[in-house]
Amino acid sequence: MNTVFSDLRSAVWVSALAGIIWGWISMAVNGVTGVFVYESTMMHNLASFTIGGAIFGIVAGSFLVLTRKRLPFKSLIPKAIVLSVAIWVVMRLGGLALSSMHHHRYNSVVPETIQGFILAIVLGLILGIMWKRSAGKVSEAQ
Amino acid sequence: MENVASREGARIGAFWPIVAIITVGIAMGVVVYGLESIAPGVHDAFHDFRHAAGFPCH
Fold it and tell me: CB A96 to CB B27 under 8 A?
């Protein structure tokens, strides 16, 4: 029990860091692709992508801690990718439901959806790599 | 007796991380869907982030 929860605590920090890196990458990727033209200032977006990225990272990392032993992959990286994409799909389906109820309020845009899906894979990749590295450090310390 | 105490300690130790994760999960919902009724202003604050991450918005 203790091991699981000490993992959970360290998961929050590693995942938040992975999420922040992902947030900055997302901001850069969207800036390059121009899929959505930014409406806020760069400083505002730097803050919102940092906080939003950390939130996404913590949620994905927490699910990784709770479900990693049940997922049918040996490596942490595919596990993290599957989880990250699954969370994104669930949230996106929620968005789809909102869109069908209030279509004037929630508009789905296909290029943004494709970009979001790819970024979800990227989040899983970053999370998996960072988790693998931190797990390696823990096992070396022991 | 020691086992019971360590189990109690583990439960107390687990409480705050779980509360934190549930809170972050709710925050994720607010960020993704921009629910103004729950957190006014959050919708505008995360507008660009929501679009870049592929979630529907106005």
Answer: no
CB contact under 8 A, B48 and A115: no
Q: Note the pLDDT tens digit of each residue in A29-75.
A: 999 999 999 999 999 999 999 999 999 999 998 888 888 888 888 88
Q: Which residues pair with A107 in a beta bridge?
A: B57
The SS3 call for residue B57 is: strand
pTM across the whole model: 0.82
Phi, psi of A107 (to 5 degrees): -100, 130
The DSSP bridge partners found for residue B57 are: A107
Asked whether B20 and A65 are in contact (CB, 8 A), the reply is no
Query: Given this model, what pLDDT does residue A4 score?
Result: 45
* Residue A43 CB neighbours (<10 A): 8
ipTM of the complex: 0.86
Structure tokens at B56: 């529907």
